[in-house]
């Protein structure tokens, strides 16, 4: 039996908010923040709903490192 995704509730709230606000992300900042908090509570890969947020975080880290002159890690 598979476990329920721990951040599924927040993911659904994001969808509801976006639909209610014609997909204007700026109107859903609060629910997006809650999703990021939920994703931060679990190890990477634990929540499939968090995969996009994990990718966003990796991109942000790459940008920070590049702005400090630190070369990206080898892939």
UniProtKB/TrEMBL annotation:
Pfam families: CMC4. Belongs to the CMC4 family. One of its GO terms (cellular component) is mitochondrial intermembrane space. This is Cx9C motif-containing protein 4. InterPro entries: CMC4 (IPR027179), Cys_alpha_HP_mot_SF (IPR009069). Keywords: Disulfide bond, Mitochondrion. Its main location: mitochondrion. It is found in: Mitochondrion. The keyword Aminoacyl-tRNA synthetase does not apply. SUPFAM superfamilies: Cysteine alpha-hairpin motif. The keyword RNA-binding does not apply. Disulfide bonds join 7-38, 17-28, 39-50.
């Amino acid at each position: 039996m598979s476990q329920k995704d721990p951040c599924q509730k927040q993911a659904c709230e994001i969808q509801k908010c976006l639909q209610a606000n014609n997909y204007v992300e700026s109107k859903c900042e609060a629910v997006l923040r809650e999703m990021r908090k939920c994703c931060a509570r679990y190890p990477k890969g634990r929540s499939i709903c968090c995969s996009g947020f994990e990718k966003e975080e990796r991109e942000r880290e790459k940008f920070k490192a590049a702005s400090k002159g630190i070369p990206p890690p080898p892939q």
